[in-house]
Amino acid sequence: MGGNAGVMKRNVQTVAPLANLYNVTCFYLNQLRQDMSGYNRPMTPGGNAVKHAMSVRMYLRPGSEKYFDKVDGENVQVGFPIVVKTVKNSYGPPFREGWTDFYNQPSTFLDHPGIDVQRDLARMGILLGVVQRQGAWFSWNGIKAQGRDSFFKEVWDGGMTEEFNQAIFQAIQAGSNLIITDDDDLIARPETADSEDINDSEV
To answer: What stretches of 117-203 adopt beta strand conformation (E)?
Structure first.
């Protein structure tokens, strides 16, 4: 009992000084589990040593929504949204929350497994005001389309992806204010199997 925590503690005590010495960023992946005491709290195995050693800790949970696509003639699940919440942050405020799209196999949405970074950037372009938004119409640099996805498609198919991304990066560096309206489906948090907020007091 406690063997897993002891191994993790020794590992952190060895790796943390080396990471600081060589200016290296280390990622630890751990698994959420239910609290054995019955308090319905999310727990992570490995003891408290890992929690205290980490500069940033994030909880990831899959959204209830599922993305389907035709693969070899069959309608199969190819992805789902992932909700990310920081429960510890040594560089800024904790308990910030966000979400992204994750695909576990190539599809028409994304041609490789992983996170759809391009679509995340496009959403940032709208939130930062790089893209002009009037109701259901979106416009930027002479491109205008009805519907968010239709607008993204015109930008990407028109060969303006690099220019579009550069404009978004410049807006981020300039510290532009986010343009957010109530009940905006662009930033609405996906539903997860556990609707309760993730909260970890042992940070």
So the answer is: 132-134, 137-140, 143-146
